[in-house]
Automatic annotation (TrEMBL):
Catalytic activity: N(6)-dimethylallyladenosine(37) in tRNA + (sulfur carrier)-SH + AH2 + 2 S-adenosyl-L-methionine = 2-methylsulfanyl-N(6)-dimethylallyladenosine(37) in tRNA + (sulfur carrier)-H + 5'-deoxyadenosine + L-methionine + A + S-adenosyl-L-homocysteine + 2 H(+); 2-thio-N(6)-dimethylallyladenosine(37) in tRNA + S-adenosyl-L-methionine = 2-methylsulfanyl-N(6)-dimethylallyladenosine(37) in tRNA + S-adenosyl-L-homocysteine + H(+); N(6)-dimethylallyladenosine(37) in tRNA + (sulfur carrier)-SH + AH2 + S-adenosyl-L-methionine = 2-thio-N(6)-dimethylallyladenosine(37) in tRNA + (sulfur carrier)-H + 5'-deoxyadenosine + L-methionine + A + H(+)
Coiled coil: none
Organism, scientific name: Paenochrobactrum gallinarii
Top-level taxon of origin: Bacteria
Assembly description: Monomer.
Identification of the protein by name: tRNA-2-methylthio-N(6)-dimethylallyladenosine synthase
Amino acid sequence: MSTLETTLTPSSSLEADAKTAANTPASTDANPRKVFVKTYGCQMNVYDSQRMADSLAAEGYVTTETPEDADLVLLNTCHIRERASEKLYSALGRLRKLKDKNAAKGKELTIGVAGCVAQAEGQEILRRAPSVDLVIGPQTYHRLPQALAKVRDGEKVVETEYALEDKFEHLPAPQREVVRKRGVSAFLTVQEGCDKFCTFCVVPYTRGSEVSRSVAQIVAEAEKLVAGGVREITLLGQNVNAWHGLGDDGREWGFGELLYRLAEVPELTRLRYTTSHPRDMDDALINAHRDLDILMPYLHLPVQAGSDRILKAMNRKHKSDDYRRLIERIREARPDMALSGDFIVGFPGETDQDFEDTMQLVRDVKYAQAYSFKYSSRPGTPGADLPDHVDEAVKDERLQRLQALLNEQQYAFQDSLVGKKTSVLIEKPGREEHQMVGRSPWLLPVIIDNNHDQIGDIIDVEIISTGTNSLVAKKLS
Ligand code: SAH
Ligand code: SF4
Ligand code: F3S
Protein backbone atom coordinates (compact mmCIF):
# COMPACT_ATOMS: atom_id res chain seq x y z
CA MET A 1 0.00 0.00 0.00
CA SER A 2 1.21 3.42 -0.79
CA THR A 3 2.28 5.79 1.91
CA LEU A 4 -0.48 8.10 2.89
CA GLU A 5 0.46 11.70 2.92
CA THR A 6 -1.73 14.62 3.66
CA THR A 7 -2.35 14.85 -0.05
CA LEU A 8 -4.87 12.84 -2.01
CA THR A 9 -4.83 9.14 -1.58
CA PRO A 10 -7.89 7.02 -2.15
CA SER A 11 -9.47 6.13 1.14
CA SER A 12 -8.51 2.55 1.02
CA SER A 13 -4.81 3.01 0.97
CA LEU A 14 -5.32 2.37 4.63
CA GLU A 15 -2.86 1.45 7.31
CA ALA A 16 -0.26 3.63 5.74
CA ASP A 17 1.25 5.67 8.51
CA ALA A 18 1.75 9.33 8.09
CA LYS A 19 3.17 11.88 10.41
CA THR A 20 0.59 14.58 10.35
CA ALA A 21 2.21 17.70 9.10
CA ALA A 22 -0.38 19.54 11.08
CA ASN A 23 1.29 22.88 11.06
CA THR A 24 0.61 25.26 13.83
CA PRO A 25 1.47 28.92 13.85
CA ALA A 26 4.52 30.05 15.77
CA SER A 27 3.58 30.43 19.39
CA THR A 28 4.21 33.65 21.21
CA ASP A 29 5.06 31.59 24.26
CA ALA A 30 8.87 31.31 24.59
CA ASN A 31 8.54 27.72 25.73
CA PRO A 32 5.41 26.29 24.13
CA ARG A 33 4.17 22.75 24.69
CA LYS A 34 4.84 20.53 21.72
CA VAL A 35 2.66 17.82 20.21
CA PHE A 36 3.64 15.05 17.82
CA VAL A 37 0.68 13.50 15.99
CA LYS A 38 1.07 10.24 14.11
CA THR A 39 -1.73 9.18 11.79
CA TYR A 40 -2.59 5.65 10.74
CA GLY A 41 -5.49 4.60 8.52
CA CYS A 42 -7.72 6.44 6.11
CA GLN A 43 -8.12 10.06 5.06
CA MET A 44 -10.78 10.54 7.73
CA ASN A 45 -7.99 10.07 10.25
CA VAL A 46 -5.72 12.50 8.39
CA TYR A 47 -8.47 15.10 8.57
CA ASP A 48 -9.14 14.34 12.25
CA SER A 49 -5.45 14.68 13.09
CA GLN A 50 -5.46 18.12 11.54
CA ARG A 51 -8.53 19.13 13.51
CA MET A 52 -6.99 17.83 16.76
CA ALA A 53 -3.83 19.82 16.00
CA ASP A 54 -6.01 22.90 15.35
CA SER A 55 -7.75 22.45 18.67
CA LEU A 56 -4.40 22.04 20.48
CA ALA A 57 -3.01 25.10 18.67
CA ALA A 58 -5.80 27.10 20.29
CA GLU A 59 -4.40 25.85 23.64
CA GLY A 60 -0.89 27.06 22.79
CA TYR A 61 0.60 23.82 21.50
CA VAL A 62 2.89 23.79 18.49
CA THR A 63 3.48 20.68 16.41
CA THR A 64 6.80 18.94 16.21
CA GLU A 65 8.15 16.39 13.77
CA THR A 66 9.64 13.96 16.27
CA PRO A 67 8.31 12.22 19.40
CA GLU A 68 11.67 12.89 21.12
CA ASP A 69 10.95 16.62 20.98
CA ALA A 70 7.33 16.33 22.13
CA ASP A 71 5.54 16.86 25.46
CA LEU A 72 2.48 15.11 24.03
CA VAL A 73 2.38 12.25 21.54
CA LEU A 74 -0.98 11.44 19.95
CA LEU A 75 -1.37 8.23 17.98
CA ASN A 76 -4.42 8.41 15.71
CA THR A 77 -5.10 4.75 15.05
CA CYS A 78 -6.83 2.39 12.61
CA HIS A 79 -8.66 -0.83 13.47
CA ILE A 80 -9.66 -2.02 10.00
CA ARG A 81 -7.46 -5.12 9.81
CA GLU A 82 -5.57 -6.99 12.49
CA ARG A 83 -2.20 -5.77 11.26
CA ALA A 84 -3.39 -2.18 11.35
CA SER A 85 -4.38 -2.29 15.01
CA GLU A 86 -1.32 -4.28 16.12
CA LYS A 87 0.81 -1.38 14.88
CA LEU A 88 -0.46 0.61 17.85
CA TYR A 89 1.04 -1.75 20.39
CA SER A 90 4.46 -1.84 18.76
CA ALA A 91 4.45 1.98 18.63
CA LEU A 92 3.42 2.11 22.31
CA GLY A 93 6.29 -0.21 23.25
CA ARG A 94 8.74 2.28 21.73
CA LEU A 95 7.00 5.24 23.38
CA ARG A 96 7.14 3.63 26.83
CA LYS A 97 10.94 3.52 26.56
CA LEU A 98 11.00 7.17 25.46
CA LYS A 99 8.74 8.11 28.38
CA ASP A 100 11.13 6.39 30.84
CA LYS A 101 14.14 8.04 29.22
CA ASN A 102 12.49 11.47 29.40
CA ALA A 103 11.46 10.91 33.02
CA ALA A 104 15.09 10.18 33.93
CA LYS A 105 15.90 13.65 32.55
CA GLY A 106 12.98 15.23 34.41
CA LYS A 107 10.91 15.73 31.25
CA GLU A 108 7.30 14.63 31.14
CA LEU A 109 5.78 12.84 28.15
CA THR A 110 2.01 12.44 27.84
CA ILE A 111 0.86 9.61 25.59
CA GLY A 112 -2.58 9.75 23.99
CA VAL A 113 -4.32 7.17 21.80
CA ALA A 114 -7.05 8.45 19.48
CA GLY A 115 -8.92 6.99 16.52
CA CYS A 116 -10.61 3.70 15.80
CA VAL A 117 -8.54 1.42 18.07
CA ALA A 118 -9.22 3.87 20.92
CA GLN A 119 -12.94 3.57 20.25
CA ALA A 120 -12.90 -0.21 19.86
CA GLU A 121 -10.63 -1.10 22.78
CA GLY A 122 -11.05 1.81 25.24
CA GLN A 123 -9.95 0.79 28.73
CA GLU A 124 -8.22 -2.34 27.37
CA ILE A 125 -5.49 -0.09 25.94
CA LEU A 126 -4.63 1.19 29.45
CA ARG A 127 -4.48 -2.41 30.66
CA ARG A 128 -2.15 -3.54 27.86
CA ALA A 129 -0.08 -0.36 27.85
CA PRO A 130 -0.09 1.37 31.27
CA SER A 131 2.19 4.17 30.02
CA VAL A 132 -0.79 5.55 28.07
CA ASP A 133 -2.38 8.58 29.78
CA LEU A 134 -5.35 9.26 27.52
CA VAL A 135 -7.64 7.26 25.24
CA ILE A 136 -10.00 9.33 23.12
CA GLY A 137 -12.49 8.15 20.48
CA PRO A 138 -13.22 9.91 17.17
CA GLN A 139 -16.57 11.31 18.35
CA THR A 140 -15.06 13.25 21.25
CA TYR A 141 -12.08 15.12 19.80
CA HIS A 142 -13.61 18.46 20.74
CA ARG A 143 -13.14 17.43 24.38
CA LEU A 144 -9.39 16.91 23.93
CA PRO A 145 -8.31 20.10 25.80
CA GLN A 146 -10.45 19.22 28.85
CA ALA A 147 -9.22 15.62 28.77
CA LEU A 148 -5.61 16.83 28.75
CA ALA A 149 -6.33 19.12 31.70
CA LYS A 150 -7.50 16.06 33.65
CA VAL A 151 -4.33 14.20 32.66
CA ARG A 152 -2.28 17.11 34.00
CA ASP A 153 -4.16 16.68 37.29
CA GLY A 154 -2.86 13.12 37.41
CA GLU A 155 -5.87 11.24 36.02
CA LYS A 156 -5.87 8.47 33.41
CA VAL A 157 -8.64 9.45 31.00
CA VAL A 158 -10.79 7.29 28.70
CA GLU A 159 -13.22 9.35 26.55
CA THR A 160 -15.09 6.97 24.28
CA GLU A 161 -18.74 7.77 24.98
CA TYR A 162 -20.51 8.94 21.84
CA ALA A 163 -20.98 12.67 22.42
CA LEU A 164 -24.48 14.10 22.13
CA GLU A 165 -23.22 17.47 21.00
CA ASP A 166 -21.92 18.08 17.46
CA LYS A 167 -18.13 17.93 17.70
CA PHE A 168 -17.75 20.04 14.54
CA GLU A 169 -19.56 22.93 16.24
CA HIS A 170 -16.89 22.87 18.94
CA LEU A 171 -13.68 22.16 17.05
CA PRO A 172 -11.85 25.39 16.17
CA ALA A 173 -11.25 26.05 12.47
CA PRO A 174 -7.62 26.16 11.34
CA GLN A 175 -6.03 29.58 11.04
CA ARG A 176 -5.49 30.89 7.51
CA GLU A 177 -1.70 30.52 7.78
CA VAL A 178 -2.12 26.87 8.79
CA VAL A 179 -4.39 26.16 5.81
CA ARG A 180 -1.81 27.79 3.55
CA LYS A 181 0.98 25.57 4.86
CA ARG A 182 -1.07 22.42 4.35
CA GLY A 183 -1.17 23.01 0.59
CA VAL A 184 -3.61 23.64 -2.23
CA SER A 185 -5.47 20.37 -1.83
CA ALA A 186 -7.47 19.81 1.36
CA PHE A 187 -9.80 17.30 2.97
CA LEU A 188 -13.20 18.22 4.33
CA THR A 189 -15.24 15.65 6.26
CA VAL A 190 -18.95 15.97 5.43
CA GLN A 191 -20.24 12.68 6.79
CA GLU A 192 -19.14 10.25 9.44
CA GLY A 193 -20.04 6.75 10.50
CA CYS A 194 -21.76 3.88 8.78
CA ASP A 195 -25.11 2.11 9.02
CA LYS A 196 -24.36 -0.53 6.39
CA PHE A 197 -22.84 -3.24 8.61
CA CYS A 198 -20.92 -5.21 6.02
CA THR A 199 -20.16 -8.41 7.89
CA PHE A 200 -16.36 -8.06 7.64
CA CYS A 201 -16.10 -4.45 8.77
CA VAL A 202 -15.41 -2.71 12.10
CA VAL A 203 -16.27 0.81 10.95
CA PRO A 204 -19.91 0.87 12.16
CA TYR A 205 -18.59 -0.05 15.63
CA THR A 206 -15.64 2.35 15.71
CA ARG A 207 -17.25 5.35 14.02
CA GLY A 208 -20.85 4.90 15.07
CA SER A 209 -23.95 5.49 12.99
CA GLU A 210 -24.16 7.77 9.97
CA VAL A 211 -24.15 11.48 10.71
CA SER A 212 -24.14 14.23 8.07
CA ARG A 213 -22.82 17.74 8.67
CA SER A 214 -25.08 20.64 7.70
CA VAL A 215 -24.83 22.40 4.33
CA ALA A 216 -24.07 25.68 6.12
CA GLN A 217 -21.16 24.16 8.06
CA ILE A 218 -19.72 22.48 4.98
CA VAL A 219 -19.98 25.56 2.76
CA ALA A 220 -18.47 27.78 5.47
CA GLU A 221 -15.53 25.40 5.90
CA ALA A 222 -15.02 25.16 2.12
CA GLU A 223 -14.97 28.97 1.88
CA LYS A 224 -12.43 29.18 4.72
CA LEU A 225 -10.20 26.66 2.98
CA VAL A 226 -10.41 28.56 -0.31
CA ALA A 227 -9.60 31.83 1.47
CA GLY A 228 -6.44 30.08 2.75
CA GLY A 229 -5.36 29.21 -0.78
CA VAL A 230 -6.97 25.78 -1.24
CA ARG A 231 -8.05 25.07 -4.83
CA GLU A 232 -9.04 21.41 -4.59
CA ILE A 233 -11.26 19.91 -1.90
CA THR A 234 -11.83 16.22 -1.31
CA LEU A 235 -15.04 15.63 0.60
CA LEU A 236 -14.69 12.76 3.03
CA GLY A 237 -17.00 10.27 4.65
CA GLN A 238 -16.95 6.58 5.52
CA ASN A 239 -19.92 6.55 3.14
CA VAL A 240 -19.61 9.99 1.70
CA ASN A 241 -22.41 9.56 -0.83
CA ALA A 242 -24.84 8.64 1.94
CA TRP A 243 -24.62 12.31 3.00
CA HIS A 244 -28.00 14.05 3.19
CA GLY A 245 -29.22 17.24 4.77
CA LEU A 246 -31.48 20.24 4.60
CA GLY A 247 -30.61 22.35 1.56
CA ASP A 248 -30.57 26.13 1.09
CA ASP A 249 -33.99 25.80 -0.57
CA GLY A 250 -35.59 24.12 2.46
CA ARG A 251 -35.70 20.72 0.73
CA GLU A 252 -33.87 17.58 1.82
CA TRP A 253 -30.73 17.28 -0.31
CA GLY A 254 -28.70 14.25 -1.25
CA PHE A 255 -24.97 14.22 -1.91
CA GLY A 256 -25.41 15.13 -5.60
CA GLU A 257 -27.17 18.36 -4.65
CA LEU A 258 -24.43 19.21 -2.17
CA LEU A 259 -21.90 18.93 -5.00
CA TYR A 260 -23.89 21.37 -7.17
CA ARG A 261 -23.90 23.81 -4.23
CA LEU A 262 -20.16 23.49 -3.59
CA ALA A 263 -19.46 24.00 -7.29
CA GLU A 264 -20.66 27.59 -6.69
CA VAL A 265 -17.92 28.39 -4.15
CA PRO A 266 -15.84 31.09 -5.85
CA GLU A 267 -12.23 30.14 -6.68
CA LEU A 268 -12.71 26.50 -5.81
CA THR A 269 -11.49 24.77 -8.95
CA ARG A 270 -11.65 21.06 -8.18
CA LEU A 271 -13.89 18.77 -6.18
CA ARG A 272 -13.41 15.11 -5.30
CA TYR A 273 -15.02 12.77 -2.81
CA THR A 274 -14.30 9.46 -1.16
CA THR A 275 -15.41 6.77 -0.22
CA SER A 276 -18.68 5.87 -1.87
CA HIS A 277 -20.98 2.89 -1.55
CA PRO A 278 -22.55 1.54 -4.76
CA ARG A 279 -26.01 1.58 -3.17
CA ASP A 280 -25.85 5.34 -2.60
CA MET A 281 -24.89 6.31 -6.18
CA ASP A 282 -28.19 7.94 -7.14
CA ASP A 283 -29.24 9.77 -10.32
CA ALA A 284 -28.46 13.25 -8.94
CA LEU A 285 -24.90 12.16 -8.16
CA ILE A 286 -24.40 10.54 -11.56
CA ASN A 287 -25.82 13.66 -13.23
CA ALA A 288 -23.42 15.82 -11.23
CA HIS A 289 -20.59 13.94 -12.95
CA ARG A 290 -22.17 14.79 -16.30
CA ASP A 291 -22.80 18.46 -15.46
CA LEU A 292 -20.03 19.73 -13.20
CA ASP A 293 -16.61 20.47 -14.69
CA ILE A 294 -15.31 21.07 -11.19
CA LEU A 295 -16.00 17.42 -10.30
CA MET A 296 -12.95 15.39 -11.19
CA PRO A 297 -13.35 12.19 -13.24
CA TYR A 298 -12.07 9.81 -10.58
CA LEU A 299 -14.36 7.60 -8.55
CA HIS A 300 -13.47 5.23 -5.75
CA LEU A 301 -16.38 2.81 -5.68
CA PRO A 302 -15.53 -0.38 -3.77
CA VAL A 303 -17.36 -3.56 -4.75
CA GLN A 304 -15.35 -5.99 -2.54
CA ALA A 305 -16.21 -9.18 -4.49
CA GLY A 306 -17.68 -10.39 -7.77
CA SER A 307 -19.61 -13.42 -6.54
CA ASP A 308 -23.26 -12.81 -5.64
CA ARG A 309 -23.07 -15.52 -2.98
CA ILE A 310 -20.15 -13.76 -1.27
CA LEU A 311 -21.68 -10.30 -1.73
CA LYS A 312 -24.76 -11.60 0.08
CA ALA A 313 -22.68 -13.11 2.89
CA MET A 314 -20.88 -9.75 3.16
CA ASN A 315 -24.25 -7.98 3.48
CA ARG A 316 -23.36 -5.63 0.63
CA LYS A 317 -26.99 -5.64 -0.54
CA HIS A 318 -26.15 -5.47 -4.25
CA LYS A 319 -25.34 -8.05 -6.89
CA SER A 320 -22.36 -7.98 -9.20
CA ASP A 321 -24.58 -7.18 -12.21
CA ASP A 322 -26.07 -4.19 -10.33
CA TYR A 323 -22.52 -2.91 -10.01
CA ARG A 324 -21.76 -3.56 -13.71
CA ARG A 325 -24.88 -1.61 -14.73
CA LEU A 326 -24.03 1.21 -12.37
CA ILE A 327 -20.55 1.52 -13.86
CA GLU A 328 -22.10 1.66 -17.34
CA ARG A 329 -24.38 4.53 -16.30
CA ILE A 330 -21.49 6.41 -14.68
CA ARG A 331 -19.38 6.00 -17.83
CA GLU A 332 -22.24 7.23 -19.97
CA ALA A 333 -22.40 10.37 -17.83
CA ARG A 334 -18.63 10.84 -17.76
CA PRO A 335 -16.81 8.78 -20.41
CA ASP A 336 -13.30 9.61 -19.12
CA MET A 337 -14.08 8.44 -15.56
CA ALA A 338 -11.16 6.64 -13.88
CA LEU A 339 -12.52 3.94 -11.62
CA SER A 340 -11.00 2.69 -8.44
CA GLY A 341 -12.16 0.03 -6.01
CA ASP A 342 -11.48 -2.15 -3.00
CA PHE A 343 -11.46 -5.95 -2.99
CA ILE A 344 -11.34 -8.53 -0.26
CA VAL A 345 -10.11 -12.03 -1.10
CA GLY A 346 -10.67 -15.06 1.10
CA PHE A 347 -13.88 -14.01 2.82
CA PRO A 348 -15.18 -17.05 4.80
CA GLY A 349 -16.66 -19.63 2.43
CA GLU A 350 -15.09 -18.12 -0.73
CA THR A 351 -14.59 -20.95 -3.25
CA ASP A 352 -12.34 -21.01 -6.32
CA GLN A 353 -15.42 -20.24 -8.43
CA ASP A 354 -16.37 -17.27 -6.20
CA PHE A 355 -12.87 -15.91 -6.65
CA GLU A 356 -13.05 -16.43 -10.42
CA ASP A 357 -16.24 -14.32 -10.35
CA THR A 358 -14.24 -11.50 -8.76
CA MET A 359 -11.57 -11.81 -11.45
CA GLN A 360 -14.27 -11.67 -14.14
CA LEU A 361 -15.85 -8.57 -12.62
CA VAL A 362 -12.45 -6.86 -12.63
CA ARG A 363 -11.92 -7.84 -16.29
CA ASP A 364 -15.36 -6.44 -17.17
CA VAL A 365 -15.03 -3.14 -15.29
CA LYS A 366 -11.39 -2.28 -16.05
CA TYR A 367 -10.04 -0.28 -13.13
CA ALA A 368 -7.63 2.61 -13.34
CA GLN A 369 -6.37 1.72 -9.91
CA ALA A 370 -7.54 -0.41 -6.97
CA TYR A 371 -6.77 -1.75 -3.51
CA SER A 372 -7.02 -5.39 -2.56
CA PHE A 373 -6.75 -7.06 0.81
CA LYS A 374 -6.75 -10.51 2.35
CA TYR A 375 -9.78 -10.94 4.57
CA SER A 376 -8.84 -10.24 8.18
CA SER A 377 -11.17 -11.63 10.82
CA ARG A 378 -12.23 -8.83 13.18
CA PRO A 379 -13.55 -9.74 16.63
CA GLY A 380 -17.12 -8.57 17.14
CA THR A 381 -18.05 -8.55 13.44
CA PRO A 382 -20.47 -11.22 12.12
CA GLY A 383 -17.86 -12.44 9.62
CA ALA A 384 -15.62 -13.62 12.44
CA ASP A 385 -18.25 -16.19 13.48
CA LEU A 386 -18.85 -17.60 9.99
CA PRO A 387 -17.70 -21.16 9.21
CA ASP A 388 -15.17 -22.10 6.48
CA HIS A 389 -12.44 -19.54 7.01
CA VAL A 390 -10.07 -19.68 4.04
CA ASP A 391 -6.46 -20.88 4.43
CA GLU A 392 -3.80 -18.15 4.50
CA ALA A 393 -1.93 -19.83 1.63
CA VAL A 394 -5.06 -19.80 -0.55
CA LYS A 395 -5.68 -16.14 0.34
CA ASP A 396 -2.07 -15.34 -0.60
CA GLU A 397 -2.37 -17.04 -3.95
CA ARG A 398 -5.67 -15.34 -4.79
CA LEU A 399 -4.38 -11.94 -3.72
CA GLN A 400 -1.34 -12.33 -5.96
CA ARG A 401 -3.46 -13.23 -8.98
CA LEU A 402 -5.90 -10.39 -8.37
CA GLN A 403 -3.13 -7.86 -7.86
CA ALA A 404 -1.37 -8.96 -11.05
CA LEU A 405 -4.59 -8.31 -12.98
CA LEU A 406 -5.20 -4.96 -11.26
CA ASN A 407 -1.62 -3.86 -11.94
CA GLU A 408 -2.00 -4.79 -15.59
CA GLN A 409 -5.14 -2.65 -15.75
CA GLN A 410 -3.45 0.24 -13.97
CA TYR A 411 -0.59 0.29 -16.49
CA ALA A 412 -3.05 0.00 -19.39
CA PHE A 413 -4.97 2.98 -18.00
CA GLN A 414 -1.81 5.06 -17.57
CA ASP A 415 -0.62 4.17 -21.08
CA SER A 416 -4.00 5.21 -22.49
CA LEU A 417 -3.36 8.73 -21.22
CA VAL A 418 -0.16 9.28 -23.23
CA GLY A 419 -0.82 11.87 -25.93
CA LYS A 420 -3.85 13.30 -24.10
CA LYS A 421 -4.20 17.01 -23.46
CA THR A 422 -5.43 17.79 -19.97
CA SER A 423 -5.13 20.15 -17.01
CA VAL A 424 -2.86 19.88 -13.99
CA LEU A 425 -3.17 21.54 -10.61
CA ILE A 426 0.35 22.49 -9.51
CA GLU A 427 0.99 21.26 -5.95
CA LYS A 428 4.69 21.43 -5.15
CA PRO A 429 8.21 21.67 -6.56
CA GLY A 430 9.58 18.44 -8.01
CA ARG A 431 12.67 16.56 -6.91
CA GLU A 432 14.79 18.18 -9.55
CA GLU A 433 15.28 21.82 -10.32
CA HIS A 434 12.84 23.19 -12.92
CA GLN A 435 10.39 20.46 -12.08
CA MET A 436 6.94 20.90 -10.61
CA VAL A 437 4.56 18.20 -9.46
CA GLY A 438 0.82 18.49 -9.87
CA ARG A 439 -2.33 16.39 -10.01
CA SER A 440 -4.09 15.16 -13.10
CA PRO A 441 -7.90 15.05 -13.10
CA TRP A 442 -7.55 11.26 -12.62
CA LEU A 443 -5.64 11.77 -9.37
CA LEU A 444 -2.32 10.53 -10.72
CA PRO A 445 0.59 12.85 -9.93
CA VAL A 446 2.09 14.61 -12.94
CA ILE A 447 5.70 15.72 -13.26
CA ILE A 448 6.28 18.74 -15.48
CA ASP A 449 9.69 19.93 -16.64
CA ASN A 450 10.87 23.51 -17.04
CA ASN A 451 7.84 24.86 -15.37
CA HIS A 452 7.60 28.33 -13.96
CA ASP A 453 4.05 28.18 -12.74
CA GLN A 454 3.02 28.77 -9.18
CA ILE A 455 1.61 26.33 -6.67
CA GLY A 456 -2.17 26.51 -7.03
CA ASP A 457 -2.14 27.29 -10.76
CA ILE A 458 -4.04 25.09 -13.16
CA ILE A 459 -2.16 24.66 -16.41
CA ASP A 460 -2.81 22.90 -19.71
CA VAL A 461 -0.45 20.05 -20.51
CA GLU A 462 0.06 17.12 -22.81
CA ILE A 463 0.92 13.77 -21.23
CA ILE A 464 4.13 12.51 -22.83
CA SER A 465 4.96 9.36 -20.83
CA THR A 466 4.17 7.39 -17.67
CA GLY A 467 6.13 6.35 -14.60
CA THR A 468 5.18 3.62 -12.10
CA ASN A 469 2.61 5.70 -10.30
CA SER A 470 2.83 8.99 -12.10
CA LEU A 471 2.63 10.75 -15.44
CA VAL A 472 5.13 13.00 -17.19
CA ALA A 473 3.76 15.98 -19.10
CA LYS A 474 4.85 19.04 -21.06
CA LYS A 475 3.17 22.38 -20.71
CA LEU A 476 1.10 23.64 -23.61
CA SER A 477 1.51 27.32 -24.21
N1 SAH B 1 -16.82 2.55 3.38
C1 SAH B 1 -16.05 1.95 2.39
C2 SAH B 1 -14.80 1.24 2.89
C3 SAH B 1 -14.30 1.42 4.26
S1 SAH B 1 -13.06 0.32 4.83
C4 SAH B 1 -16.92 0.97 1.61
O1 SAH B 1 -17.98 0.65 2.01
O2 SAH B 1 -16.49 0.49 0.60
C5 SAH B 1 -11.90 0.31 3.52
C6 SAH B 1 -11.67 -1.02 2.91
O3 SAH B 1 -11.01 -1.89 3.80
C7 SAH B 1 -12.93 -1.76 2.53
O4 SAH B 1 -13.44 -1.30 1.32
C8 SAH B 1 -12.46 -3.17 2.47
O5 SAH B 1 -12.01 -3.53 1.19
C9 SAH B 1 -11.30 -3.21 3.45
N2 SAH B 1 -11.65 -3.96 4.66
C10 SAH B 1 -12.54 -3.62 5.59
N3 SAH B 1 -12.63 -4.58 6.55
C11 SAH B 1 -11.76 -5.55 6.18
C12 SAH B 1 -11.40 -6.81 6.74
N4 SAH B 1 -11.97 -7.26 7.86
N5 SAH B 1 -10.47 -7.54 6.10
C13 SAH B 1 -9.88 -7.10 4.97
N6 SAH B 1 -10.18 -5.92 4.40
C14 SAH B 1 -11.12 -5.16 4.98
FE1 SF4 C 1 -17.48 -0.86 6.35
FE2 SF4 C 1 -19.39 -1.62 4.70
FE3 SF4 C 1 -19.67 0.60 6.14
FE4 SF4 C 1 -17.93 0.52 4.13
S1 SF4 C 1 -20.15 0.31 3.96
S2 SF4 C 1 -17.58 1.35 6.17
S3 SF4 C 1 -17.17 -1.57 4.23
S4 SF4 C 1 -19.57 -1.47 6.94
FE1 F3S D 1 -9.23 2.66 9.89
FE2 F3S D 1 -11.06 3.88 11.27
FE3 F3S D 1 -10.44 4.75 8.87
S1 F3S D 1 -10.74 1.72 11.18
S2 F3S D 1 -9.91 2.87 7.86
S3 F3S D 1 -9.11 4.73 10.61
S4 F3S D 1 -12.45 4.73 9.78
